[in-house]
Amino acid sequence: xxxxxxxxxxxxxxxxxxxxxxxxxxxxxxxxxxxxxxxxxxxxxxxxxxxxxxxxxxxxxxxxxxxxxxxxxxxxxxxxxxxxxxxxxxxxxxxxxxxxxxxxxxxxxxxxxxxxxxxxxxxxxxxxxxxxxxxxxxxxxxxxxxxxxxxxxxxxxxxxxxxxxxxxxxxxxxxxxxxxxxxxxxxxxxxxxxxxxxxxxxxxxxxxxxxxxxxxxxxxxxxxxxxxxxxxxxxxxxxxxxxxxxxxxxxxxxxxxxxxxxxxxxxxxxxxxxxxxxxxxxxxxxxxxxxxxx
Length: 294
Prior knowledge:
By secondary structure, the protein is of the alpha/beta class. The protein has one domain (2-290): Luciferase-like domain (TIM Barrel, Alpha-Beta Barrel).
């Protein structure tokens, strides 16, 4: 099981200087990747910009967007930013992408929430070609070709993980992704998606095994439980009863933290990110100690 830790880019009360220090500490303590949560209509730090700052202050730890809401970006803009970050970080970027469930993330982007699935399908095809520097027919002049996107040359395309628990997410993963990333809800919610995805991955003749990333919220320390719980319930307020489920599944003790790793592994996952709920640097050290990392 590959273990990562989220950056507190959506957690209120964040000191801007905390995030680079958080990533440096995560690298020192042996986490394999850091990740961000992507939102538009929320007072948070932008995922790709945050990871660009983190890339400059680290050298080994991998970077993951988990997940950027792809259709809120114009295709060419997302392609260029992602490829730039991949190159400047030394090809440490994995691009987690999804469509999201909040209309409030689409209105500020002037994008049609009801069409997000169709836009995402088109975007994935675009990114696939843009990352490889392919060309396509412009359409305005028959036979005329143009670059798909002005991406910087010379880098490996960043792997893409597809987010979501729908049939469409499974289809997109098999067609375009290096793997899949699940949102809150625990290993039980992820299990049927994992089973379906593995079956269809093999049927499609995909080589190797897909990356399968789980997510769990955490806090360390009795003194932060209330603060942690309040953040989770506030963040998921839009989801109704689901907010209570996610809050109740947060892990806080050594036994809970180690146990949830085993449960995700039993569900077939091979990567797990612990997403923070309290913006304190000691949370990185506490989690590393509970996991017996370096």
